[in-house]
Predict the 3D structure of the following.
Amino acid sequence: MPASNENTKKQAVVGSRSAAEERAQSEAIFNSIGDGAIATDEFGKITRINPTALRILGYKEKEIIGKWFPSAVINVDENGVPLSLIDRPITRAFLTGATVSDRAYFQRKNGTRLAVSITVAPIIHNNRPIGAIEVFRDITLELKIDRMKSEFISLASHQLRTPLSAIKTYAHMLADGYMGEILPLQRRSLETIIGATDRMNELISTLLNITRIESGSIAIIPKTTNLVKLTEEVIKGLRHIANDKHIDVKLKYSAPAILKTDSLILKEVLSNLLSNALKYTPEQGSVTIKLTGRNQHLTISVHDTGFGIPKHSQQQIFTKFFRAPNVIKHETSGTGLGLYLVKGLVTRLGGKVWFESEENKGSTFYISLPK
Ligand code: ADP
């Protein structure tokens, strides 16, 4: 008996030493994280902060431990205005119980602003949230590179426009016989040149619009807009593609659809959706555009009987440069920028965009806009 007592005591000592060691080890791991890391309890009180976070924020540990996270660590927008509590990633993580990632600005102790990428995850223990951990890193350089990239694309696109319009004008003049008789073969070649310049112009507009959306410099000029007329114009502009592929395009609406919006932007959005529907629908298919109004919103749907979007690709469809593998074999031309742009533009108009799709059956894209 005494021997076994002795053993139990020894185990207890070993056990308690390893628990202390484990604590020290987890402390060391937390402190060695290369990104800033702040942990809170379930009430949002700061329980731990690592040296990177202290360096980034400019605080000493004793100035921050035990404080309520939202008042100790200030998030502001790009103009220096503090984010409301509900908009803060940590609040969203607490409310949803899910991991939240976002970009924001920290206001440091010395008053300067720093752009950071933040990920907040709830800490779950025994199926119960017992706090949250916020990890963040400085993204000043990333933002600077992004800005330079956008400026370069914008400058290059503008510079490409002038020579392109000269090519198009002269190709038209040649094709129309202003510079002498031409042979049918020569005309076909000139038409190919004109078609290619049109596609390049579209690509340049898309790139310019994307840089404007990303830099937040796109101006919205709302005007009373007749949606039926606007949709008819969009259909007219793409009628030749529908005719070439023998695709039946229908427009359905039950009441006059009038709303106050930026008609040029909406036209760009609808053109993108209709041209996708035509591009990804095989010959003899059909495309139906419906305008419906409910309460304060108008909904536009573009339905096609085309290739559809495979389930595994549906999550990525609005991502920049994404193209689903099922369409690439049918349609080699495409940039994967159209829907990214549509989403950015619709969001700027205060609306929403979503879709339903089944592979080999077809797709329906919806836009809802505030009236
Ligand atoms: P692009 O058409 O230039 O590839 P988009 O951004 O407009 O780029 O579309 C991204 C991808 O979404 C397409 O490549 C295609 O895989 C899918 N997609 C978009 N619209 C449709 C549609 N109506 N039917 C089937 N797939 C579509």
About this structure: The chain is about 45% helix and 25% strand. The chain has three domains: 33-138, 142-215, 223-370. The first strand starts at residue 36 and ends at 41.
